Structures are given as C-alpha cells and as structure tokens.
Amino acid sequence: MPNFRRGRRGVAGFFEEIPAATVAIISLLLFFSGILVALSNYTNRQQSSQFAQEAQTFLEGLLGYSNLTYLGQNGIFDVYAMEALTVNNLTYDFHPSFQYSVTVTDTSVYPLHYNQNWATGTFPKDTSGLQHGWVSDSTPVDLWVFNFGDDEFHAASLTVVIWS
Questions:
Q1: I want to staple 164 with a disulfide (CB 3.0 to 4.6 A). Which of 19, 73, 98, 150 is the partner?
Q2: Is the pTM value of this prediction over 0.90?
Q3: Cα distance between residue 57 and residue 102, in whole Å
Q4: Gap between the Cα atoms of 103 and 20, Å rounded
Q5: Nearest CA to 144 among 109, 106, 96?
Q6: Distance CA 110, CA 147 (A)
Q7: What pLDDT does 121 receive?
Q8: What angle do CA 8, 11, 15 make, to 5 degrees?
Q9: What tens digit of pLDDT does each residue of 95-116 get?
C-alpha cells in the first residue's frame, strides 16, 4: 500500500499548467492576428498604388494623344482638337477600367481662355463607397491657338481625376 501523508507537500497537477497554457495560446493568437492585419494593410496599399499608377499612365497617355496634340508634339494641345474631342473618343481609345474626369484649364494671361472638361460621370460626394478610392494627378501643358493669323501658346494645366 502506498504511504500517503497529509500536509503541504503535494504533487503538482494539472491546474498549474492551465494559466501557462492560456498565456501561450493568447500570445500565439495575437501574433497570428498581427500577421493577418499586416498582410491586409499590405494588400490594400498595393491596390492603392496600382490605382495611382493607372492615373499616371492615363495622364501620360493624354499628353501624347494624337487626337489632342498639336502636330503630334507631346504636351502641346490643339485647342480646336480639344473642342472636337468627346468623352466617347477618349473612352474608345483608352478603354479605362474606371470613371474619370479630364480637365484642361487655361492659366495664361491672354484675355480669351480655352477650358475644356471631359467626364464619364459626376464625382461622388461620398467617396467612402468607392472600391479603389480616387486619385487626382495634374501636369502643366501648352495650348496652341491660331488667333487672327498668329500662333499663340497658352499656359494650361491638365488635371485627371479617376475613381472606382
């Protein structure tokens, strides 16, 4: 027969391991949830970066767009070609996967200004529902105007806003 004694010297049992196991499990859960959050943030930033790159590519395409430029010169727009261009032409030639607004704003000191806007829709007031968000990009351009027998080159700004 085993010799059992009563007293404070007991045998270690299962109940001492429960707190240690709980701390280890909680630590692992926090570690893996941190990895998931970091991966999610990385994926969102990659998508945001790709969307910003699409805006830049669209803007660069417009700078050299033959239906818009003066004699094919990159960044010099023909005012008369601007007036003839429609949003359907832009959509057909560029096939964007997003909604867009393209604005050319004449910033010159000449008294007559040539401003033009092409848009596939109106920019939403509440942007929280957009899947990819929105991006705006702008660059200076020149406008060629043939005015009363003289060539004029107006300073202007080309602004592209895309959203999806």
A1: 98
A2: no
A3: 13
A4: 64
A5: 106
A6: 11
A7: 85
A8: 100
A9: 998 999 999 999 999 888 899 9
